[in-house]
Specification:
With about 375 residues, the chain is of the alpha+beta class. Helix content is about 20%, strand content about 30%. Strands 15-20-21-18-19 form a five-stranded mixed sheet. Strands 8-7-10-11 form a four-stranded antiparallel sheet, with helices on one face.
Length: about 375
């Protein structure tokens, strides 16, 4: 359990401990992780473990403990893994042992200072429920309805500010007593967003079969139409290239095979508007594509969605400075072999010869042929 995940639970409930470290436990295991042993102790007792981020819970070790007290087990673990522990009611805090620390963690008198602050997002809106914790301790709180917090920390402390979907910030307190903290969205942690019939949803929340294709997957493909661009990008979607006959409309798209004797083409919508063929769209104008592949799509679009739905969202203008992009290529080629040609004199003479052999009148007169020779 992380400190940030349990801080609110500890603050609200403040469960009083009715147990002591004299409870007896049994641990047996070979090459198991520290986390495995901690989970076993939690199952056998009423204690819960909280550990700092720098505690390596994936460290492997072997233990064979029979009916020992928690105190003896914790001493064993701390000696092997260089850890320090501190009991707070029914919670046991684990942390990396510092060079001057002894077990259990010594209580040292430190000068405290009161700090205040507000936590906002990139738009300046307050973030409610953000975790503000003094680094290396369980001293912390969550921001109120206005994104504000008040905390007593050591004079040389650092605070960790975190919230789901945002990058965690570490700030040294120093001489400051008032803070304005702006959290930035963690774009790598955001779930993939797909377009459905009634808006957009995160892909993890969908129960239907949906495939999504982003503009980054389309932009580098050397194709001239969209149907060729999506070939091989989504499971269950088959694209068959056309034969090039006059009147034939590009490629054939089938979603999960052929489900009818009639037309099996998928239902195609561009920005919510039905369109006839997917190849009428410039691939460079596409922002994203979603492919609805199961029967759930028919609940939104009706019988037209029986063979699947392809939803296309085109690019929109964005605020900021205009940008111009250019893509082009230049090539040079040389003739590999040149054919030797007749001069005008030989051409006229041989042409007349061919006509007379065919029974026709000559094309050039002797005077013309002589002029070609003299010229």
């Amino acid at each position: 359990m992380k400190v940030t995940n349990l801080l609110l639970f500890i603050t609200i409930f403040c469960l009083s401990a009715e147990n002591t470290l004299s409870q007896r436990i049994t641990l047996r295991g070979n090459n198991l992780t520290l986390k495995n042993y901690l989970n076993t102790i939690e199952e056998q007792t009423d204690y819960l473990f909280i550990y700092d981020a720098d505690v390596n819970v994936n460290k492997r070790m072997s233990l064979n403990v029979e009916s020992k007290s928690i105190l003896e087990v914790l001493d064993n673990l701390s000696n092997q893994l260089d850890l320090a522990y501190l009991q707070e009611g029914s919670y046991i805090l684990l942390s990396k042992r510092k060079a001057e620390a002894d077990k259990p963690l010594p209580v040292t008198a430190q000068q405290k200072k009161r700090i205040t602050g507000v936590v906002v997002d990139v738009l300046g809106e307050p973030i409610i429920g953000a975790n503000v914790i003094e680094k290396g301790t369980i001293n912390g709180m969550i921001t109120d309805m206005d994104g504000k917090f008040v905390l007593e920390v050591a004079s040389d402390a650092s605070i960790h500010v975190s919230y789901i979907g945002y990058n965690t910030q570490e700030i040294k307190v120093g001489d400051q007593t008032s803070f304005s903290i702006k959290l930035i969205e963690d774009t790598q942690a955001l779930s993939e967003v797909v377009v459905v019939g009634y808006g957009t949803q995160t892909k993890i929340n969908l129960t239907g079969a949906v495939g999504s294709i982003s503009k980054d997957e389309l932009i580098d493909r050397p194709v001239t139409n969209v149907s060729s661009a999506i070939q091989g990008l989504t499971p269950g979607v088959t694209v068959t290239s056309g034969t090039g006959r006059p009147g034939q409309d590009g490629s054939t798209i089938r979603i999960r095979g052929v489900g009818t004797l009639n037309t099996a083409d998928p239902y195609i919508l561009v920005d919510g508007i039905e369109t006839g063929t997917i190849n009428q769209i410039d691939p460079n104008d596409i922002e994203s594509m979603s492919v609805l592949k199961d029967a759930a799509s028919a609940a939104i679009y009706g019988s037209k969605a029986a063979n699947g739905v392809i939803l296309i969202t085109t690019k929109r203008g964005k605020l900021g400075k205009p940008t111009v992009s250019y893509s082009g290529n230049v090539s040079l080629s040389n003739v590999a072999t040149l054919i030797d040609r007749l001069n005008s004199y030989d051409h006229a003479r041989l042409y007349n010869y061919a006509l007379t052999q065919d029974g026709s009148a000559p094309r050039f007169t002797e005077e013309d042929i002589q002029l070609f020779k003299d010229g």
